[in-house]
Amino acid sequence: QLSGLLRTLQIMSESPLCKRLLQDDKRADPQQVVERAVKRHVTTWWQDLQDRELEGIHDLEEQVKKVINITDECHLFIVNATSFYSPVFYNDFKLPYLRIVYLFVTLKLNPCVRPLLMNIYNRLLTSNATGKVTDPEESEARSNYALNAGSSLWQLYINLGRIHKLGSIMPLEVRQESGVKDYHKWFFKGVMHWLQMAQVRTQKIITNAVEADMLVPCDEYCNFSSSATDAITVFIGVRNWWQELSWPDVQNSCVLLVKVLEDLCCSATFYCDLLRNKVDAMYNTHRNQGKVFITKEICIGLNNIERVKDEVVKLPEYFRVSDLLDRIGKDVADTSDADNASHQFRGTFDRLISSAVENMEAKIAEFVDTVVEKITGIIHLGLSDACEASNPELLLGEVLDPGLGLMRTQLHAQNFERFLIRLWDELLGLVRTIVIRNAERKRAPYFQGVHDILCRSLKFFSLPGGLVLETAMNDEYQSLMELLGHLRLPSEALISRYYQERSEERQLMSVTSRGELFMTVFFTQSSKLVVEVVMARDMQRESEVGSVGSKQSHGAGLLNMTLTGGAPLAVDSYVKVQLVPAEWFPSAMKHETKVMKRSDPATFQETFTYVLCPEDTNVKEGFLLLTLKDRNLARSNTFIGEAVVALASVPMVESEAISSQPRTLQLKITRPGMEAGYKSLASLRLRMSSDRVASSFLKKISSRFADGRLRKESRGTPGIHSGDEDKSPGGKSPKLIDKLKMAAGKLE
């Protein structure tokens, strides 16, 4: 009937006769009459709907329910218009029935819904500002007003979204005139309120989950426990809410999504802190149960954190961030603006997730640190027992192996490596502490045992599936091995190491030369060491009068300038020849050349012989020490410098004939540098108070160091007196006037 009526009216409106009749009677044409009839019908329908639903309703919650009913009716009315009436009116009468209905309904919905929502969220803001909610009904209302799935406002939001979506087939001008085109903005405060409540609710759920978690695997096929599953379930719930929200404004949706992801990342960090505290508390219950190293609960706790971290990494995928960014390019008209907005948001999301992953990695590191700190005492006890007994099994077999075996089976490979690295660093620190604490009390065999334990520990930690050997042999390990390499040696061997360092130092160009010594040295077939001191030249000493510290004193400078015109003073030189370390050559004599007065070069041409077999161990590791000195009367002789020759480098000749002798050596005479530069001396100094050989040696060489540090420490050590080992008969140093007289006598 409607179709036939509309076709008839369409024919009449197109008839010229009908048009003239209507114009003569001043009546409206059929087009206007039908359009007014449609609007009157829609108006009547709307008024009846309002009267039926809203009359006598004053309660806010009831109003929300009634408005939901109204939006349901409006959606159904527009759907019927789209499906049934619009095609008839448009095909038979060319009337845009759907456009009229859609605009009328949406423009009426705007003043019906929007003020109600503003009233609700103003009340929420006022309540949030005061922070006081004493009425249980008010508290329940706040929860209902949050834009939560299943709440009344959520249903209202969904209904308006459905009505808005029906207008997507309308022309652009109709969509722009729609009363619900910005419906989502009416709910923005609700979304923010939901996010706030969701954050609080999420943390409460996570807290309860961690408290109830016994850190037992959920089943035999996984290695994480219930709290990790609960935390992930919360993430899934937020994701589902976001997908159902389907916020229509793309750019504003990106802003909201940043907030959503940020809250989830904070919840993940919150979970890590709770879990670390729980594991800490659980470990305290086991600390008195013998040598408890690692428990299964600790492994499960770390796996839980790793599991939640994996979910954080996948958040952009779960929330379809890429699809959202692609929509920006489609919805923004200006291509350049769309590209800029997409690029900025992509950078924001990338930084957010990257920062969250870094925080989670830091939380895992904190978790590992917390566990290692708890077990440090057990490791230290096992290490101390192993060192005292020189038995690595007391540490590796009884303490480390059970715990590391459990970790290998329970942890992911990455987390197992994290623990190994942290444990290895802690073990190295404990070894250093034990070494330093016992350096002055223990003998070389003790440190030999510590050295063996450290070597065994390296092999233990670098087994297949463990640390990479290059990673384990870090700077701290190398430093410890070097320190133990010295401490495990007897003092005589350390003295030999010192002379080895002096021999190598002589080759450096940066070392100042105090002169040159020419000599010949060789072994014979009859087990003799022949040393011929030939000549010394270009000898330099610091001063003719006074000690090293007073070499630039006013008196010495005046004497030099007055008596010699600035020329260097002459040297009464001689060379002392000895085998070192002296303890390895107890029967070897110390030889001295004759004194060459005021001679430079000084020609000695003296030969000394030692009975030695070059194959003996001590000979292979021993040294020939040649000390150049200046003879002084009535006081200590002045040390000019020294040269060191390794006996292992001395050649063997078939006979003592001149033709068979090796070429003459030209040795640079040097003084020891800074005392701190010799690693062997650092180990000897640790034994000064307990080792006679070390203290005696340090006493002999203390005056040879220009920095004076070793001399000061020698004076503070009982039984050690600084000064040169060679004294002139007078014993005490002369007064200043005597020094001047002696210096003047030398110049005559």
Description:
The protein folds into 3 domains: 2-186; 194-440 and 451-478, Tetracycline Repressor, domain 2; 492-747, C2 domain (Immunoglobulin-like), CATH 2.60.40.150. 62% of the residues lie in helices and 8% in strands. The chain has helices spanning 2-14, 16-24, 30-54, 60-93, 97-130, 136-145, 152-166, 172-177, 183-186, 188-212, 226-245, 250-284, 296-313, 315-318, 321-331, 335-389, 393-410, 413-438, 444-461, 469-472, 475-487, 491-505, 554-564, 617-621, 679-685, 692-701, 709-715, 736-747, and strands spanning 515-523, 528-537, 573-580, 591-592, 602-611, 623-630, 638-646, 665-669. A 4-stranded antiparallel sheet has the order 5-2-1-8, with no helix packed on it. Strand 1 (515-523) and strand 2 (528-537) form a beta hairpin.
Assign an overall shape.
Answer: elongated
Radius of gyration, whole Å: 48 Å
β-strand amount: 5-15%
Please summarize the sheet with the most strands: 4 strands, antiparallel
Helix content: 55-70%
Q: How would you classify the helix and strand content by structural class?
A: alpha+beta
- Alpha-carbon distance between the termini? 150 Å
CATH architecture descriptor of the largest domain:
Orthogonal Bundle
How many β strands by DSSP?
8
- Uncertain runs: 130-139, 544-567, 709-723, 728-737, 743-748
Task: Quickly count the helices.
Answer: 28
**Number of separate domains:** 3
CATH top-level class of the largest domain: Mainly Alpha
GO cellular component, one term: recycling endosome
Biased composition (Basic and acidic residues): 722-748
Domain MHD1: 154-275
Subcellular location: Cytoplasm; Late endosome; Recycling endosome
